[in-house]
Amino acid sequence: MSDKKKQVTRRQFLNYTLTGVGGFMAAGMLISPLRMAIDPVLQPSGTGDFANVGLSVDDITAEPQPVEWDVEQVDAWYKSDVTRKAFVFKNEQDEIVALSPKCTHLGCMVSWEGNESHPNQFYCPCHDGRFTKDGTNVEGTPPLEPLHVYDHKVENGMLFLGKAYPRGEA
Fold it and tell me: How far, in Å, CA of 59 to CA of 72, rounded?
C-alpha cells in the first residue's frame, strides 16, 4: 500500500462545491412551500367560535327564516368583518336546524320558496338546484349533496351559530 494521500483534483473540488451550493439553494427554495403546507395544520382550529346571531329561541318557527350576522375574519395580517348567513327553523321534533344558504353545486345562494313551481323547497337560481326543507338535495337536480349544517348552541335564550359542516360531520 502506498502512504501517499490521495489528492482532490480541481475538477472534483469544483464538483463538490457546486453540488453543496446547489443543495443549499434547493433546500432554501423548498422551505417556503413546505412551510405553507404544514403551517395551517399547526394553527389552532376555531371550531369553538360561536357568534350570537341576535335571534331569540322563542322567535324561531317551523318556517325557515334568513339570519345574518357579522364575524371577524383574519387573513394573514388583514382583519375584516364578514357577513355570514343561515336559514334557521325548528323541525318536526322541535329541534333547531340552521342550514347554510350556499348551494353545494357551485356555491350560489339559495332562497326559501324561491320558485313558484316548487313551493316549500330551497331553490338555487344558478342551475335550477333544489333542496327539501331539511336541506336534502332533490334527486335529478345539479346539487349532489345536501346543504351544510351549522353548529349551534343556545345560551340565555339566544341562538349562537358556529361553523357550517357537511351532513354527518357536525
Answer: 26
Q: What pLDDT digit, counting tens, does each position of 74-88 carry?
A: 777 788 888 899 999
Q: What does the pLDDT look like over 33-81, one tens digit per residue?
A: 888 888 776 766 554 578 888 888 888 888 899 999 888 887 777 888 8
Cα–Cα nearest to 108, from 119, 98, 89, 123 = 123
| Pick from 149, 148, 98, 108: nearest CA to 128 | 108
The amino acid sitting at 144 is: L
For residues 105 and 144, the answer to whether their CB atoms sit within 8 Å is: yes
Asked whether the whole model's pTM tops 0.85, one would answer no
Query: What is the model's pLDDT at position 44?
Result: 63
How far is Cα 54 from Cα 129, in angstroms, rounded to an integer? Answer: 30
Report the Cα 22 to chain-centroid distance in Å.
39
Check if the beta carbon of residue 113 is closer than 8 Å to that of residue 119: yes
**Cβ 118 vs Cβ 130: under 8 Å:** yes
Q: Report helix, strand or coil for 158.
A: strand
Q: What gap in Å lies between CA 147 and CA 162, rounded to an integer? A: 15
How many other C-beta atoms can be found within 10 angstroms of the C-beta atom of residue 40?
8
